[in-house]
Specification:
Strand order of the largest sheet: 7-8-9-4-10-11
Protein name: Lantibiotic protection ABC transporter ATP-binding protein
Number of helices: 7
CATH superfamily: P-loop containing nucleotide triphosphate hydrolases
Keywords: ATP-binding, Hydrolase, Nucleotide-binding, Transport
Largest sheet: 6 strands, mixed
Strand content: 25-35%
GO molecular function: ATP binding; ATP hydrolysis activity
Number of domains: 1
Oligomer: single chain
CATH architecture: 3-Layer(aba) Sandwich
Shape: globular
CATH class: Alpha Beta
Organism: Acetobacterium wieringae
Distance between the termini: 38 Å
Family: Belongs to the ABC transporter superfamily.
Amino acid sequence: MSNMILTTEALTKTYQGQNAVDRLSLSIPENTVYGLLGPNGAGKSTALKMITGIAKPSKGEIRYKGRPWQRKNLSEIGALIESAPLYGNLTAYENLLVRTTALGLPKTRIDEVLHIVDLTGTGKKKARQFSMGMKQRLGIAGALLNHPKLLILDEPTNGLDPMGIQSLRELIRSFPAQGITVILSSHILSEVENTVDKIGIIANGRLGYQGELPNDTASLEALFMDVVRMSSNREAY
């Protein structure tokens, strides 16, 4: 059995009396790509924000490498939540320089991560002139600066064209071989079925399935819809 780099137990986030995430228990195997799937509004982003320390859990526990999560664990976690935090008037290098300076990291790391995400040839081009795919890859480069063991990507293919999706998929698939575990959230099944190793499906903040990825698209779609329907039926009572 694979070692679990991160687990959550009954993780819950409540806003104004409503559970955005409801007793979520995830098990993320080390050196895999884990797909956190669910419709829009299912609670995926909220769950990832708790794992990255952006939001505080209302209840439950997060464990990193078998121990209770602590803020110091963020030194081994990279994240791209929602949209890439970029300065449009700066180049790719300059954007990353801002982050390395803030984090106290060596400047040599900038060229390393630009090479990883294939942005070494952008030169003096400003980030505002980048395509959506380039912006996403630059955001991932920023998340890689601290040599993370766990990389969290929230809907990274949003707004990308088919070529951009394919390029990003290949990049994400390369990370486990580099010792980087990836948690990838999405609501679009076709974009993740060739990317992830394990999946968790949530709806209305609740985990409806966790385990192996079904063998074909039809089976994945059927499983996804079953989880969403069961969750809707529970909400109706």
